[in-house]
Design a protein that fits this description.
Layout lengths: L1 H33 L10 E6 L7 H9 L6 E7 L5 H11 L9 E6 L8 H10 L8 E5 L9 H6 L7 E12 L4 H14 L14 E5 H6 L2 H5 L5 H11 L3 E14 L3 H18 L1 H31 L4 H29 L4 H28 L5 E4 L2 E7 L2 E6 L1
Parallel strand pairs: 1-2, 1-4, 2-3, 5-7
Antiparallel strand pairs: 4-6, 5-6, 8-9, 9-10
Helix pairs in contact: 1-11, 1-12, 6-13, 10-11, 10-13, 11-12, 11-13, 12-13
């Protein structure tokens, strides 16, 4: 079993590398989160929120977006048609805002159905086509996120530097029901959030992101978006091609309340990874390799250790130490990401406790489930998103198959 020594040391090296990046990203998140947003950069912002149906905590989510501590922003809430239950709720929320909102303008737009891109992007472009010329920054949020009062100021602040092409937060799922599928969603998503930091591998996330309007037009996004499905990944690709940076803003990590069944969890994860495979194949491949490394590194070394002990191989104790190293390294990364979640979403700490416990006790199972979901996304190009089916023909071409 001499060959195993070389493989074992290679696996240990990979494990240490993953742990190093987890520590580095955690340190970055904590340092950036503790810095308050200054008042030196306050451009005029258009905040665009596409809506479809009533998400959990819908009213609270929309109010959080319309009550930002920001002096000069205009909000555009966009639905496909007036029959969407979100439309009536948005009108009610707008009419009852009173003095709680800092935005001088809240417009509710009806975009109509899309024919060549995702409905979400169609809604976004419909709003963008109606913006005034004095808008300097585009900010985007999803209707299923709840944000802090300084979210917009924090999101916009890094754009004062020209090299930063797009700023992004990310989501953490806060369970509204503590069944295994929902807890698994929270744990798997937290492991993805842990990959964001001061890194050129960052990808923007459309539920919490901002870009300068001039850059948006200069990079040709209005034309690119007309035929694509993913708003955030296509924007990330364009920004990186232009030599600019996707900047992760830890303070813009947002809460998304969720309740999942196993079938919905499978559909959601496959959809996310399939979109990543089409738009960012290198990111998808790295995710696959890291997931395989975590699963095979733990369970493969356990199998070799058992075999070595069974046949009485030399240095059997050495073989037994390797899975312990993997187990300890993965557990340490769980503790790091959940401590970040508790710190950055302290207002949701009580709701997050079951998800934290589930991640700590079951990370070995969630990592296996994550690998299965990534592998499932390696096949096919058809997805269902918010009740509409799409076929991803390529990064710049999408076929709308209908409801």
């Amino acid at each position: 079993m001499n060959w195993y020594y070389y493989i074992a040391w290679l696996l240990v090296g990979v494990q240490l590398l993953f742990t190093y990046y987890a520590v580095r990203n955690h340190r970055y998140a904590m340092l950036k989160y503790d810095r308050k947003a200054g008042a030196v950069y306050r451009p005029r912002v258009a905040l665009i929120v596409p809506c479809k149906g009533l998400d959990p905590q819908f009213d609270a989510n929309i109010r959080s977006l319309l009550c930002q501590e920001y002096e000069d922003y205009r909000a555009y809430l966009v639905v496909q048609d007036r029959s969407d239950p979100a439309y009536a709720r948005l009108c009610t929320i707008r009419d009852h805002l009173g003095s709680g909102s800092a935005t001088p303008s809240v417009e509710i737009l009806v975009a109509g159905p899309s024919t060549a891109c995702s409905q979400k992007i169609h809604n976004l472009l419909y709003a963008i086509d109606r913006l005034d010329d004095d808008i300097e920054v585009l900010a985007f949020a999803d209707s299923d996120v709840c944000v802090c009062s300084d979210w917009l100021a924090r999101l916009v602040q890094p754009l004062r530097r020209p090299k930063r092409g797009v700023t992004t937060g990310y989501r953490l799922f806060v369970p509204t029901r503590n069944n295994l599928a929902t807890l698994g969603l929270s744990a798997i998503n937290a492991s993805v959030a842990q990959m964001l930091g001061n890194s050129r591998f960052n990808q923007a996330w459309g539920g919490s992101m901002a870009v300068r309007f001039a850059d948006f037009r200069r990079l040709g996004l209005p034309e690119i978006w007309k035929h694509t499905l993913s708003d955030d990944l296509s924007l990330s690709v364009a920004v990186k091609k232009a030599g600019m940076i996707v900047t992760f803003v830890p303070a813009c990590l947002v809460a998304s309340h969720a309740s999942m069944s196993w079938s919905r969890l499978s559909e959601f994860c496959r959809r996310q990874f399939l979109i990543t495979r089409v738009y960012a194949p290198l990111t998808w491949a790295l995710g696959l390799l890291s997931s395989m490394g975590s699963v095979l590194g733990l369970w493969g070394t356990v199998a070799v250790a058992v075999y070595a002990a069974t046949v009485g191989a030399r240095h059997a104790r050495f073989f037994a130490v390797i899975p312990v190293i993997f187990f300890a390294g993965q557990l340490f990364r769980v503790v790091l990401r959940q401590s970040m979640a508790s710190r950055l979403l302290k207002d949701h700490a009580r709701r997050l406790r079951p998800a934290i416990v589930a991640d700590v006790l079951g990370f070995w199972f969630w990592s296996l489930l994550l690998l299965i979901f990534i592998l499932s996304s390696a096949f096919g190009r058809t997805i269902r998103w918010r009740g509409i089916r799409y076929r991803l023909l390529g990064p710049t071409e999408t076929e709308v198959l209908g409801s």
